[in-house]
Amino acid sequence: MDSKKQSSETFHTLSTDQTLASLNSHYDGLSQEEAATRLQQYGKNALEERKGKSLIAKLLAQFKDVMIIILLVAALISGLLGEWTDSFIILFVVVLNAVLGVIQENKAEQALAALKQMSSPFAQTRRDGKIVKIKAEELVPGDIVLLEAGDVIPADMRLIESASLKIEEAALTGESVPVEKVVDPLEKADLVIGDRKNMAYMTSNISYGRGIGVVTATGSSTEVGKIAGFISQDEDEVTPLQRKLNELGKYFTIITIGVAVAIFIIGMIQGREIFDMLLTSISLAVAAIPEGLPAIVTIILALGVQKMAKRNAIIRKLPAVETLGSTEIICSDKTGTLTQNKMTVQQAYIGQTMQQADQALETMQDYELFLQVMALCNDTKISHTADAEQFTLIGDPTETALVDYGIKHGFDKREGEIEFPRKAEIPFDSDRKLMTTVHELNDGATVYRIMTKGAPDVLLERCNSILMNGTVMELTEEHRDSIIKANKSMADKALRVLSLAYRDESAIPSIMKPEVVEQNLTFIGLVGMIDPPREEVKEAVRICKNAGIRPVMITGDHRDTATAIAKELHIIEDESGIITGSELNQISDQEFEEKVTQYSVYARVSPEHKVRIVQAWKKRGSIVAMTGDGVNDAPALKASDIGVGMGITGTEVSKGVSDMVLADDNFTTIVVAVEEGRKVYSNIRKTIQFLLSANLGEVLTLFIATLIGWKILFPIHILWINLVTDTLPALALGLEKAENDIMKRKPRKASESVFANGIGVGILYQGVVEAALTLFAYYYGHTHYSEAVAVTMAFATLGLIQLTHAFNVRSTTKSLFTIGVFSNKYLNGAALVSGFLVLIVILVPFMNDLFSVVRLNGEQWLVVAISAFSIIPIVEIVKLFMRLFSRKK
After folding, report:
1. Phi/psi zone of residue 509: left (φ > 0), alpha (ψ -120 to 50 degrees), beta?
2. Which of 86, 143, 333, 531 is catalytic?
3. For the segment 157-208, what is each residue's pLDDT rounded down to a tens digit?
4. Phi/psi at 235 (5° precision)
């Protein structure tokens, strides 16, 4: 038997004594020695993480790319033929690419590791009869844990004491409403997790009350751990960018072999030396392969990842950046992502007057009593921080909203509890929908004030009087009608409404029962709350719609609340675009696939519905991003094209399966990431256009020159040009700023070719132009000077023409002079450095010999400069015609 195997007892069916006996524990807790023994036996209370790849494995994985393999073969052949310089340069590029890939993979892992360290949970437990605070990972089965509002449940446990304990289990069950807990055993053994009301599960949050539990399972044996193990298997789906780069590799493999074989055969027919033609074939093969492309794409993606991380979007998988750029649907949770995840008072109704939350209450005579009841009939705790002016509110979100509102309007709960100490209470329960506390008032004569808050319809029935402008008067039907109308007005805005009432007595009621205490009350007012939308999300939704991206809200909240938030954010304009989970259950998958475009808001849904929503959109060919924070959101996160985990509220499991993690849980961050993804993909396309047009120019130059019988360039020339003029400018193109209309374009389809929208045509004609201008420079040198001068002029022209052409591809259609010739400072620097590296080969004597070139005079340099810069006006003319054609179309 595995020593780590833990008990599979159905603890929810056992009594508290039976549970303790089964776990060999007792109310005073375990001894330190026994706890240490069990920790050794069962291991740490932490979810098992997949063993990361070793450095060697990561490095070897970088060499799986088709183009990299071809380059390695080329390096080997060059070495065998004695061309050690060529071989070294190829290997240098390959190793550089591999190192960059490993560095970026490690950076992504470190970013997530840092995110995990944001919270270091502890637990209060009994050891040797004493209460001690230990790390949650040190808990073992049988430990007795004390639970309070605000705590995160550190392990699975059977509750043995409960005082109005409510636990929010959304991460595990998807149910957003806190569950009231009990300690009595339950009869049925096969209850689902959500119905095991005497159990508490790891990662759940205590929203109200307090309790004590005995740990029944830790680590991977917990319910969360079982799910984590199930979904932790690798499923690396190939993204559109990976597929396209692999396709490019295959195309250029065919081109490389075809051109090399063709040129070799032509050379043999012409009667040239075999060794000479073999070298020429290798130079052609090297020219045909864009050896800088894998490294450049990796760097561009890595830079995009770093930029996103600074804006709170942590990318776990590099190619996910590109997929984000083609996102068409963003399915987002409401709470915390679209909203502030903080219940906030919006309206107050006092003395038959409605007040907005930001209006001063001091003008209303009864506001002090209103705030008093709101804050004191309330179990919120105020946690102090090192800064005396800072504090944290702990408790049920509804109650913390009331306390926060009170503080903003001058009533501090901390001071109120000292002045009006609580003497008795009747806790809230969901059946009667009320909470009551009794406080002592020491203002000359001892008076006890009964304070009650709860559901308006219930509390109103318990009132026979109303407080109006400092005077208590009889509650008339007219008053009731006004209160009911005010309540409806708030409810129509999807506000959660509570009513407040009180009664003064000379003594604490002798019988503290609801039917005795909660009668003959005086009505004070109503308060309406909601989790309000984040202000910045409104603009983000507008940007999404302009960009052709459809934002979809998914929430466990009621239809009215979802509708109100969605309308305010302009996700929907009317209620035709909303559907509830129960309505969704009545629709078959096939019917839903046809109707999915009708809905932008899903209310009162469970996490399992998310998978259906994702699959329905994907079957229509859309790229879908899906947010999630709970364990049972994991299947939907994996099913989507971009799984977006929540960094603050998300479980480790949901973060682990996500492609991207939001450090701030904010919808706006997703939109920022989409914009960055579009920019990155656009820049990658510019890089591809630049590299392939340059390499096509090289291939055509060599191919045509060989057919004519010219020996125009040597292998070392091609490799040097590719290294110094391709790499830096291509990288600089990856840093090009996003074009100002990038978020006004429709998302591209995942099936769209990387050569679409003029890129393919651009590569072809620009490659032809580069070859023609290079051949012209060689021809001029060949006819006017010597063979050595002609080769040098061809080398200089081909190198410089690629640098000038880099400025052309900064935009496919816009004029270079419109976007600003020198507005990309990185490209300016790259052109200067690369240009210097091309010229130094010709200008420095010992480099002349190494590269088999000669120094040029002024006239020769003038011909080179004219040839190199001619590509700019040629491309500008083509762009002009493209713009004119586009306008007519």
Report:
1. beta
2. 333
3. 999 999 888 888 876 765 656 888 999 999 888 787 878 899 999 878 888 8
4. -140, 75
